[in-house]
Every structure is written in structure tokens, then in C-alpha cells.
Amino acid sequence: MGKIATVFTKCRYFSLLFRNWSQGIYVVVGTNDLTMGGSHISVQSIKIHEQYDNATSKNNIALIRTASNILSVPQTSTVALGIASTLPGQMCTLTGWGKEYLAMPLYSNILRYAQFSVLSLDECRWYLYGIHNSEICTNPSTSGGCDGDNGGPLVTVADNVQIGILSRGVPCAMGKPDVYTNVAHYSNWIDQHSGSMISALSPFFLALLLSSCCLM
């Protein structure tokens, strides 16, 4: 398998980081517990989508180039990059380091997960205003993305394909859909800005998202 040194995530995190780049950013991979194990991979550069709109969350995707090969780290695996349309009802898993509930004072050190089914965009628009065709929604549930989970991957249960990046929504399962950037919609942009490391047919690493990144 070739070298993988590119991470993708949402844009919203980087509006302040660029002003304080000397603080340093790194990616943590190879562990499900931030208090032990894993490896810290330095970040070399960040590419934010040129048409990202902070007010509407449109084009909420960014690429992070790491300084070294992530797949050289033990305890890592791959997931395919979504290139096809997502079907309503498809079961998916969200992972993240966010809070268990909104009032919780600290983020989780343990990687958590929850499963949801995909909601059609027409149905999603019944709940939320301003849903874009470049987004994916999941059905409201008793579990959901919470503070700190944004940027986390949405991966299909049946075939282990990453179809989304958690972008926005009402936090912590408060009766509204979670909203994700649709990875397939941006496959050409990802390929254009990451070269041969991520293509429509190449495997993509599950931890290559901000859900597995930490700020120093």
C-alpha cells in the first residue's frame, strides 16, 4: 500500500489556527484512548476549500497534509472513500471524541461511536433550514453527535465506506438530524488537491479526520 500523508476534515476549525500556526497541530493515530498509546504525527500544511462559507457551512471540508506516513503506525486500518450516491435508510457509524452530553465539562478520552440511518435531503429539510445538496443527513435518534464530535467520520456499516464528515446540526441528540459534508460530492476536489494519495479507487484511512486530531 502506498504512503498516506493527507487528512481531510471540516474547515470551521481552522479560522483561528492559522493565526497561531506556531502553536503546532498534530494528528493522533493508532489508539482509541487519548491517554495511552498511539502516535503523534506532525501537520505540514492545511488546504481549506476555496468556496467555504462559514455562515452557511457550505463546502465545509479541508485537507491536512501530514509530515510523515500515517500507515507506518501500528494498529491502523483503512476504509474506502465514498464516490457513489448515498441511499436513504443506509446504516452508518459515526465515531468521535466528543462529550456524552452537552453539559459535560470535559471531552471524552475514549473514542465513542453511534449508529444511524441516512435520511433523505427532502426529509431533512422538514427539520432544518439551509440543507445543501452537498450534504448528508442522518435520522434523529436517542444518540447523536455532540460537542467535540464535529469533523468525525460517517462510515457505512455494510461495506466500510466513509461517506460523510460531521459538519453541523443540533447537538447531542436533541431530536434533530445530524448534518454531514458529503464526501462523494467532493471526490474531484479531494483528488485535485491531494494527488495520487487519495483517488476514487484508493483506500482511505479511518483516522484521517479531525476526530483523531488534537491541538497542542
TrEMBL record:
Q: What PROSITE patterns is this protein classified in?
A: TRYPSIN_DOM (PS50240)
InterPro entries in UniProt: Peptidase_S1_PA, Peptidase_S1_PA_chymotrypsin, Ser/Thr_Proteases_Immune/Dev, Trypsin_dom
The text of the family note is: Belongs to the peptidase S1 family. CLIP subfamily.
Q: Keyword Disulfide bond, does the record have it?
A: yes
Q: What are the protein's UniProt keywords?
A: Disulfide bond
Q: Which SUPFAM superfamilies does the record cross-reference, listed alphabetically?
A: Trypsin-like serine proteases
Task: Enumerate the PANTHER family for this protein.
Answer: TRYPTASE-RELATED (PTHR24256)
Which one of the record's GO molecular function terms can you name? serine-type endopeptidase activity
| Pfam families to which the protein is assigned, alphabetical | Trypsin
Q: Which GO terms describe its biological process?
A: proteolysis
Q: Peptidase S1 domain: which residues?
A: 11-195
Q: What is this protein called?
A: Peptidase S1 domain-containing protein
